[in-house]
């Protein structure tokens, strides 16, 4: 009996170490569903999803108006070919990947706009807009576009949230939406051996809070919903079941502010300039820390 107890204790201990060290969101807790996040979109291969709701999920995105979803350009390349818009189903208002709820909204795309200067090799300008066939409903609190895009890159040490259907601590895909808090850090902390660093990369840690491959395009936002970035491409195997120490990379959407506005239909988006006062306040806080800590 004693030996079984000791064995279980060791297993639990090892499990907790692994749990901390693989990239997961919300500590990968399968038993703690979060609320609906109305601006999070699930992108799915329509033919796969038709036979099994949720199975077609391949990328994530953000509703930026009632007509448009913002995501990565790389998302639309599957098996080296550019998807046709009518092959892509966009689902909103569902927190359980495999369950349709009453408020679930779903439509296919009628156009995919890839940034002109997107490079599949360097991943520069990895941004795209999908135009929805049906508009988001006007009166559905579970499906809504985000209304603020940041016009500034996030400052270091800023806390931001990420959302996705990432891995759980049991190394399984999550059945419900997960969230996590990351902190923006200097670009040098992101390892170019694991992540493609571009001129628009944001780097954020800690390493065990990260998105996995089907979280590509998922939002990096403030607590009150100001969009700063998208989870950048996570190549196959990025979240393999091994101990990893790579920090996450994100596409800085402020660098594409004009491009997004120019191509966003029915947009209600307003810009969010961080005022000089806010910056001075942060500088003051940093000084204060330096003196007292
Ligand atoms: C793509 O790059 C060219 C050459 O640098 C530039 O003139 C053009 O404005 C860029 N396109 C976009 C959409 O940024």
Structural notes for this entry:
- Helix content is 17%, strand content 27%.
- It has two domains: 16-32 and 148-255, Thrombin, subunit H, CATH 2.40.10.10; 40-145, Thrombin, subunit H (Beta Barrel).
- The strands form three sheets. Strands 1-2-3-8-7-6 form a six-stranded antiparallel β-barrel.
- With 293 residues, the protein is an alpha+beta fold.
- The protein is built from four helices and 16 strands.
- Residues 115-117, 259 line the site of 2-acetamido-2-deoxy-beta-D-glucopyranose.
- The site of 2-acetamido-2-deoxy-beta-D-glucopyranose (NAG) has 4 residues, from loops.
List the helices and strands and how they pair.
Blueprint: H1 2-21, E1 40-45, H2 46-51, E2 57-63, E3 68-71, E4 77-78, E5 81-82, E6 88-92, E7 105-114, E8 128-132, E9 148-150, E10 159-164, E11 178-185, E12 201-205, E13 219-221, E14 226-231, E15 248-252, H3 257-263, E16 270-272, H4 276-292
Parallel strand pairs: 9-14, 9-16
Antiparallel strand pairs: 1-2, 1-6, 2-3, 3-8, 4-5, 6-7, 7-8, 10-11, 10-13, 11-12, 12-15, 13-14, 14-15
The structure holds 2-acetamido-2-deoxy-beta-D-glucopyranose.
């Amino acid at each position: 009996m004693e030996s079984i107890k000791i064995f279980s204790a060791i297993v639990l201990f090892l499990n907790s170490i692994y749990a901390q060290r693989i990239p997961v969101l919300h500590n990968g807790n399968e038993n703690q569903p979060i609320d609906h996040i109305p601006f999070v979109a699930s992108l799915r291969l329509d033919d796969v999803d038709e036979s099994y709701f949720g199975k077609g999920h391949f990328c994530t995105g953000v509703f930026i108006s009632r007509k448009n979803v913002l995501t990565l350009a790389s998302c639309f390349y599957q098996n080296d070919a550019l998807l046709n818009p009518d092959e892509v189903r966009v689902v909103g208002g569902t927190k359980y990947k495999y369950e349709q709820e009453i408020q679930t909204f779903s439509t296919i795309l009628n156009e995919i706009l890839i940034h002109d200067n997107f490079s599949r090799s360097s991943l520069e300008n990895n941004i795209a807009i999908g135009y929805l066939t049906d508009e988001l409903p006007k009166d559905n609190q579970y499906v809504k576009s985000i209304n603020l895009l940041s016009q500034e890159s996030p400052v270091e040490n800023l806390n931001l949230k990420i959302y996705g259907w990432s891995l759980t601590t049991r190394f399984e895909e999550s059945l419900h939406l997960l969230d996590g808090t990351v902190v923006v850090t200097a670009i040098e902390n992101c390892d170019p051996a694991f992540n493609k660093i571009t001129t628009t990369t944001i780097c954020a840690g800690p390493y065990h809070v990260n998105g996995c491959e089907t979280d590509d395009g998922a939002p990096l936002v403030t607590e009150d919903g100001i969009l700063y970035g998208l989870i950048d491409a996570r190549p196959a195997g990025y979240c393999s079941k091994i101990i990893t120490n790579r920090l996450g990379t994100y596409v800085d959407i402020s660098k594409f502010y004009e491009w997004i506005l120019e191509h966003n239909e029915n947009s209600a988006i307003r810009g969010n300039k961080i005022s000089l006062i806010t910056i001075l306040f942060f500088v003051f806080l940093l000084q204060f820390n330096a003196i007292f800590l």
